[in-house]
Amino acid sequence: MERPIETRIQPPINLTIVSTMKPEPVNPDAIAALQGVKHSFQTDRNFQEIHCSSNAAAELQEIAPTCLRLASKLAANAELGTLYRMQASSDHDHFIILALNPEVPNAPGPRLVGLHTDHTTDIDHLAVELTSLL
Amino acid sequence: MGNNELIQYLSRSGNITGSFLVSPTCSYLAGDLPDFFDSTKIPAMAEDGYTALEAIRTKIPDAKEIRIDTHLLAIFFRDLGRALLIVLVNDLAKANSAKIAIDVVARRYLPEGG
Fold first, then answer.
1. CA of A3, closest CA in chain B: separation in Å?
2. Domains and CATH numbers, chain A
3. Which helix (H) or strand (E) holds B62?
């Protein structure tokens, strides 16, 4: 008797590249070694802490989700493109949040890095240096 | 330096794509805006800028400026006390020069009628 041909149905595979980031967090020591950085933190895509260098960094980490969501909303509402960086400055300090990955469920890697520097730091240069660590 | 002088100075700097001033109640005061920018978005944008500054000031009380970078633009929000200055820069390589121009006008700003 002839056997029926077995058919294995494979589920469709959907691969979407959501980030060019490495899945590993950035080395906290390498961030701390960047010129001008006084405090730093890093969180995952759910804003859960990956590393936090000090109590001062923890304070800034508390407002990071609010800041990033406000900045994202602002950029989207004004149709000014996709947010990837936000910076706040006073006469003495810079507080920078780099949004490393898009806000996509299950995106690999860290979501954002926050840096607290003094006001003399060249933020653009710092961002380039940080990006080179990714 | 009043509202219009401030905007003219920024326009002449050559590094700025567009700029405008709004009051603390988010009313438009003066500006020089690029064609691509939808001016109906000004009040909401101003309100979001003030809200973001308030959020930052819960941890950095003397924060005076926010810069937001997108893939298209750098956008500066500078609190001048009686007005909020919003500056658009569509060439990120010019953002540092734009920042210097913003610092200059911020030091010289005297609101009209104030």
1. 59
2. 28-133 (3.30.450.30)
3. none
Q: Per residue in A31-88, pLDDT tens?
A: 888 888 889 998 877 788 888 999 989 998 898 888 888 888 888 888 888 777 888 9
- Find out whether B104 and B5 touch, Cβ atoms under 8 Å: no
CATH number at residue B11: 3.30.450.30
Question: What are A104's two structure tokens?
Answer: 């996509």
| A125 at B interface, C-beta within 8 A | no
Question: Is the residue at B87 inside a domain?
Answer: yes
CB contact under 8 A, B41 and A93: no
Note whether A55 contacts B: Cβ–Cβ < 8 A. no
Judged by average pLDDT, the poorest of A10-19, A86-95, B26-35 is A10-19
* Kind plus residue range of the DSSP H or E element containing A1: none
In a domain, B113, yes or no: no
Report d(CA B8, CA B111) in Å as an integer: 14
Q: Is B114 a member of any domain? A: no
Whether the per-residue pLDDT at A13 is higher than 60: the answer is no
In a domain, B9, yes or no: yes
The pTM of the whole model exceeds 0.90:
no
Residues in chain B within 8 Å Cβ distance of A62: 59
Interface ipTM above 0.95? no
Cβ distance A85 to A127 under 8 Å? Answer: yes
The pLDDT score that the predictor gives to residue A66 is 86
B40: domain range?
3-108
What's the domain count of chain B?
1
